[in-house]
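Appendix C reproduces, verbatim, an entry submitted by the partner laboratory led by Prof. M.T., so that reviewers can inspect both the input and the predicted structure.
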Amino acid sequence: MKKTFLVIMMVVAFVLTTFAGGILTNTNQSAQFVRMLSRNASTQIDAVYFNPAGVMQLENGFHIALHNQTISQTRTILTGAPLNNKEFIGDVKAPLFPSAFAVYKVDNLAFSLGFGPNGGGGSADYKTGLPSFEGMVANKLSDLKPEGYDVDIAFKGQSVFWGLQAGVSAKLGDVFSGYLGVRYLPSKNTYTGHIKDISVVVGGQKILAFDYLTALSSAASGAAASVQPLITMGGGALTIPQAHSLGYIKTGDKDLLLGGLIALGVPAAQANAMNINQVQAAFTDGAAFLDQSAQGTKDVMVDVTATGAGWTPIVGININPSEELNIGLKYEHKTALVLTNETREGDGFSDAGMAFLKNNQKVSSDLPGIVTAGLDYKVTDRFLTSLSFNTYLDKGVDWGSNIYGEKRDIDKNSWELALGLQYHLFDNFALSIGGMQSTTGVSQQYQSDFSYSNTSNTGSFGFQWNISESLTFDAGVLYTVYKDYDKAFKGYKETYDKENFVFGFGLAYSIFK
């Protein structure tokens, strides 16, 4: 149980805090995205991320933008497993989710910089752990057949993959422009948690499982020692009933020995047929097993920080055939990312002997490639329609196995389709709305309480205010509803759900030349 718990801790922290986009990738990188959802053909400052070749549509000069989002996500897991808790809630918070963009454009060239949390970016707090955590405790204690159990479980994980992007865009003619760039991702996961005070209810009293199992182990050791004199006398071949009938064992001791064997799981008929040598061996083995079980109920604490960095090559094309129509295309290559553990040890903390949790151990954490396409069309000078499509190349990444030992396979690449509408009420003020369908492609074997991906629908609205010719303010909110996912287990099912709320705002400033 101790080892399995720490394995779960490692995986949970890595995938809990992705907000909008693919399994690991955040695409909510600007306030304009929050208010509109479709930005893949953007020709504004956030094109640095969404459509980097499109920055060629900006006017000559220096452009900069600072954005922030406040994000709240609730993850709810309902389980039909025979556990004390039936509902497990994880609160994911990201009060600060900053992004920044800068562009310097001169005639046929533009140099751009971008910054933002491309993965993670928040903290997840499960105050009662997860069904997997409590299930390990319940399974561990099931052989004891207690009247009940109790346990203190908690987990908190933080994850952020910062993206530092730089590139060059160039005009390739009257219609086309191109982009070449790279993103550097310094990444960090931190996770802490514990399983403490595992207790069993016996005879109506709650007892620490460690104390209870240690007492049983001591009793089994005492029983093994009690028959040694009879073995020394040469009576090792006698059964317990035979030794009792010959007067070597008293009635009370006979009952205790037979009862002890039955308590260790030996059938009554087999216990009566075992000779004294076999009886001693059974109690010796039982004492060792109970002692090992007691060690497995000690408090478990983990404190691990994993850091690393990767590089993402990026290419883009912008097509601008007319003033009304703009098309953006982008490809982000898979990011090869390896995280290195810094694991706290001593004072109750450990790596539980697991190789990939050891201090300085390297763990592969690749991010999948992405292909995006977008189309903006101005119906009138005041009315803009926008369509965006993303596909995440999830099948190109090895996602490992879940806690149930199932390979986390991908049936098909996940995708998103978004529609955004923007209307200028005044020359300097526009309202926008957006809708997005996100469809996951993971298999049933991928899903678990600590790592699940749901199909979802998102709605958004907001505004853009051009305070002056040089200064623009954007603000918006979005809300995501996820489709429940039911995973079947033997005799019960678990339901995985979540909901997402985001508020974003940002300022952009331009110095024209």
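The mean pLDDT is 89. Additional entries are available on request from the coordinating office.
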